[in-house]
Structures are given as structure tokens and as C-alpha cells.
Specification:
With 211 residues, this protein is of the alpha+beta class. It has one domain: Alpha-Beta Plaits (2-Layer Sandwich). 19% of the residues lie in helices and 23% in strands. The chain contains 7 helices and 12 strands. A 3-stranded mixed beta sheet has the order 10-1-11. It has a 3-stranded antiparallel beta sheet with strand order 5-2-12, with no helix packed on it. Strand 6 and strand 7 form a beta hairpin. The chain is globular and about 70 Å long. The model has no long low-confidence stretch (mean pLDDT 95).
């Protein structure tokens, strides 16, 4: 089996959200639904020095996240209908809408805030790694749309060999929770998962999507 995953270069991401918009357009998603979300993580303080001047350790960076197609997906484990499966050939985690009863347990279980519950269909929806495109040898639309080339997609072992093994930065949870298939290049400001010195500046945008 080839396990596919994403690469995200936080040194390149400017938070423009082109990846998010391209996904919404390709998947024909409504305004309130997003499969890829860009988090703005910010923090820092000002402190006075003895000469009356102030110094700051302020920081800000962006994190673009979609489904990480985890080795131990909590959404899959939580689904009461067996509607979520991990493909045996690609490792992609997807939802079978025919089996889904809209319980929303996947939405509650995912620590990455990935699945959403569609209000009209009452079905769970999520990123499938653009399975139709990748089956034809094409990258997911979010990867191709990024103007700064901050995203890539492919065999996770090849991505790790090329870019390292970092699989989480704040505000992401610890990778030990689900063993996500993502590789991240950390920017200079990046904080470790679980960091409490910063906050998600656009929390309403990324977590306020109706589910």
C-alpha cells in the first residue's frame, strides 16, 4: 500500500486562502462549508526595558489544513455506521454518503476540525484528497492552486524523505493522537503543538463553519 499525504511549507504560506477557495470551487461547496481551512495563529507580548523602550516577542503565521488521512483516524473509529473507511491502496480516508446517517460523531471526534455535516443532505462531508484527480496522476486542486507552492501531495514516505518528519505545529494537536500523514516545514515563528502562548486569530472563520 502507498500511503498518500500532504506537505505544507509554513515558510511560504501567506494566508491568501487560494487553496481553500480552489477546493470550494472544485467541489462546488456552499459558502458555509470548507474542506481546507487556513488558520491564523498569533501571539506575543510587549515588555518594557530599563531604558524605557519596549521590546516585543510578537509572532504570527498561517497553517493550511485539510484531512490528514491519519493512520489512526478518530473519525473512522467514532462512526457508528461504518460509513468512513481508509482505502487499502492509497490510505485515503473517505466517507460513504450512502451509509452515513448524519450522526455527526465524526465531526466531534476529529481533532483537526475536518469533517462537516451538510445541513441539507444530513451527510458527513470531508476532503478525499481529490481522489478522482490523483487516480489520474494529477495533484489535488489545492496543491496546484497555491501561488506560493506551499503545498504538495504524494507518497508520505517520499515527502518525509525530502522534507523531514515534523507532523504538527500549533494550533494543531499532538500528532500522537492520530498519527497524521502530513509533513510540515516550520517557519521561524512556529510553535509546538499544544502551545498556549498564541491564539487562533480567525477562530470564528475556521471553527464557526456550521456542522
Amino acid at each position: 500500500m502507498t500511503q498518500y499525504g500532504f506537505y505544507f511549507d509554513s515558510t511560504r504560506c501567506t494566508g491568501c486562502r487560494t487553496c481553500e477557495m480552489a477546493c470550494k470551487d472544485y467541489k462546488d461547496l456552499p459558502e458555509t462549508t470548507a474542506f481546507r481551512k487556513v488558520y491564523d495563529y498569533e501571539g506575543g507580548t510587549w515588555a518594557p526595558s530599563t531604558d524605557g523602550a519596549y521590546t516585543s516577542d510578537a509572532f504570527a503565521y498561517h497553517v493550511s489544513l485539510a484531512c490528514n488521512h491519519c493512520d489512526q483516524p478518530k473519525c473512522l473509529a467514532a462512526c457508528p455506521q461504518g460509513a468512513i473507511a481508509k482505502d487499502g491502496k492509497t490510505g485515503i480516508v473517505s466517507i460513504d454518503e450512502g451509509k452515513c446517517i448524519g450522526s455527526g460523531t465524526c465531526v466531534e471526534a476529529c481533532p483537526y476540525n475536518v469533517p462537516v455535516l451538510d445541513k441539507e443532505s444530513k451527510k458527513g462531508l470531508k476532503c478525499d484528497g481529490c481522489a478522482a484527480r490523483t487516480a489520474e496522476g494529477t495533484k489535488p486542486v489545492c496543491v496546484e492552486a497555491c501561488p506560493l507552492r506551499a503545498l504538495d501531495f504524494g507518497d508520505i514516505e517520499e515527502l518525509r524523505a525530502a522534507h523531514g518528519t515534523t507532523a504538527g505545529i500549533a494550533p494543531m494537536p499532538s500528532p500522537d493522537e492520530t498519527h497524521p500523514n502530513i509533513v510540515i516545514k516550520e517557519c521561524a515563528a512556529a510553535k509546538a503543538p499544544g502551545d498556549k502562548t498564541g491564539t487562533i486569530a480567525n477562530e470564528k472563520e475556521v471553527t464557526g463553519v456550521p456542522a
